[in-house]
Amino acid sequence: MIFYSLLFPKSETDTDVKHMIVLFNGNTIVGHVDSLDVANVYYRLADSLEPLKLPTWKIYYIYNDFNRVFHYSLSFKENMKRINNRPGTLFTIEGDTIPYKSVIANDNFFKPEILVSTSAEKSTYYSMLGIEKVVTDYSVLEYSIERGSAYSSYVFALALLLDLRIKDFLPQLKFFGLNKTGVTYESFVTLIPAATIGSLIWDLWKDKRSFYFTPVYEEKKFGRSMYIGSLKHILQTISDNVIFRIEKTKFGGKVIRLIRQKVS
Fold this sequence. Notes:
Blueprint lengths: L3 H4 L11 E5 L4 E9 L3 E6 L6 E4 L3 E6 L4 E4 L1 H9 L5 E5 L4 E4 L1 E4 L7 E5 L5 E5 L3 E6 L5 H21 L3 H4 L15 H21 L4 E3 L18 H18 L1 H14 L1
Antiparallel strand pairs: 1-2, 1-5, 2-3, 3-4, 5-6, 7-8, 7-12, 9-10, 10-11, 12-13
Helix pairs in contact: 3-5, 6-7
């Protein structure tokens, strides 16, 4: 099935391959991608010859009118992972609503599909480019619990490392149970549930059970941003950009190539 024609009609005389650059909020740029690297995507709008540039960290994924994804973000990959093996409801760009028992996303992110099981006897493959959103059950909020626990651990570790005195520097944190005489075990065990509950409330308010994939219309935004701002993703994005910039230099390029040869 060609889903592109449902979204952005193509004229019979238009022979160029168009690319859809989907941003994290669902806004979609229709144009022609000339090239891309780790840092930027270089493109032209569909009705213009002016060269434009967009940082890759702003892009959810890019696909073409042959239904092929040729660039995807870490957040896109993580969102595909998070819907796996959970019950919920699938909404297609054609307006269908499909309750399901479980879904399994394939690991081919350049032609993403999910196997949707609506019963023990019936399973159907759906192209991710034909799916507007997937709403899972509340089990997906396990990621909220993990994040709340991790954040509280970061705060405690930082306070312990720097030997911060809460009463002098962070008096406002006494509300969360941090002992005013310094970093203590009691403060730590009180901060964990407070941070976890706060993370759960935040994700419920932000509707983190809904995972958006394909905009129904070019100008229609998603119900929420699909960016996952985990520390792991942030550090990987920074390291990828640093390595890319180093590799562009003459000396740095030789060093990176040598390291890759040694590793491989």
